[in-house]
Specification:
By secondary structure, this protein is of the alpha+beta class. The protein has helices at 18-35, 49-52, 82-91, 134-150, 162-172, 179-186, 189-201, 205-212, 226-245, 286-289, 304-311, 333-345, 359-368, and strands spanning 39-40, 46-48, 66-68, 74-77, 99-108, 120-129, 156-161, 249-251, 265-270, 278-282, 297-303, 324-328, 350-352, 373-377, 385-390, 396-400. The protein has 3 domains: 10-155 and 271-319, Bira Bifunctional Protein, Domain 2 (BirA Bifunctional Protein, domain 2); 161-258, no CATH class; 324-406, Anticodon-binding domain (Rossmann fold, 3-Layer(aba) Sandwich), CATH 3.40.50. It has 13 helices and 16 strands. The structure holds one RNA strand.
Amino acid sequence: MMDFTKRVRGTRDFLPPFSVKRAEFLRIIEDTYREFGFLPWDTPALETAELLTSKGGEEIREELYIFKDKAGREIGLRFDLTLPTARVLAENKTMPLPIKRYMIGKVWRYDRPQAGRFREFTQADVDIFGSDKPVADAEVVAAPWTALKRAGLEGTVQVNDRRLLDAIADYVGLPESRRAEFYRAIDKWYKVGEDGVRKELGELGKYLDRFLEFNNGLDELPEPTEDIKKAKDCLLKLGEYLDDFGVIWTFNLFIVRGLDYYTGPIFETFVDRPTSILSGGRYDKLIGLLGGRDIPAVGMSIGVDRALDLYVDSMDLQAKEADVYVAVIPGYEGEAIQISKELRAGGKSVFMDVTGRKLGKQLADAERRGIRTVVIVGRETEKGQVVVKSLESGEQKTVPIDSMITL
RNA sequence: GUCGGGGUAGUGUAGCCUGGCUAGCACACGGGACUGUGGAUCCCGUAGCCCGGGUUCAAAUCCCGGCCCCGACCCCA
């Protein structure tokens, strides 16, 4: 016997009431992005394996969904929204700059699933193309940060800069060949603390000591070299703008992020757990590497499913299925349709009963769905009236159809 | 890729160590008591031992193998 109820590993079904909250969250994000002047883009879920593997080594294939199509072409599912977008910009060489775009979509990674980590998940990106100014960095942080705040999640953005890391690495003599290893280790600071990082670093710990000389806050950061001073000034400027936007942020020398894209400021956002729900950075070289013009770019991405997985209970999201429940007495279906139509025209979302079950069942159904206002459509319609009942107070009155919208 | 913990109705669980009633309970779901008034109560109903093999008179229970889930590490563009 086949089991047709199996799901693909690491994927999820979204059902009410969770799916209602999820939709609400996505709506808040999208509205906020639009308010900041970002425009919607969409690109295919499928991309060529060539593109997907263009950054990072062969081992990156282990993290991807890649397969051959019927013609033998190697294709795969996108693992983020940045690379496909960069592909579009590399391909369309005359798009008017700057571009502020957002994209909300599913991405896939062949990771081992665990808490806050899935094989199919949703990201909500904003990116600005065509500006290398700190004000662009700040805005691209502010839009998603504000969206999270509106959803009830006030995070702290940890800010760092790749150029600062590299400038300090140059200054303290950290060999190029050991940098990836070193950065990967210090990136875990937030999670495992200094002791954990030191343990992983081993003999590289001596460089950590040198890095710690630069860890006394951004204002007091020493400037022994010109590169360090430049990176610092850039971060100070960025910080000012973040303050102007009202973003809560802090400088953190031990934020690194992935090693393949980023060339400037980098961001991770935490609420009260060591798992980032909003991250990104500046990647000025990517589009050029894909064959386009060199276009400066900076982007951020909300980990939508991760944020919901970790925080849905403390978020400020509506779970109500509709504004009004239309209960229908058998025989009055036509009237109920008309009345539902009017309610919708008045801006209400309407759940109309379609089962013809008895009234008691319909009221219980409304209750269960979290809908607190019921319009009962029955014999009163013959006098142009309906019964409007509040499930909250239990009160009800018979009113003319025209005036029901105000209730 | 490495390591741990688990799989009993839709969900959560009891039973397992110490094999043996018809596998119990709660919630949820459907129907009824109540033929036009919800949340309470009562009654009825649907529905389960992950798969395969072994031991035994007898396996949810013990043994072996497999599959799957959860979590941690690695990695996370």
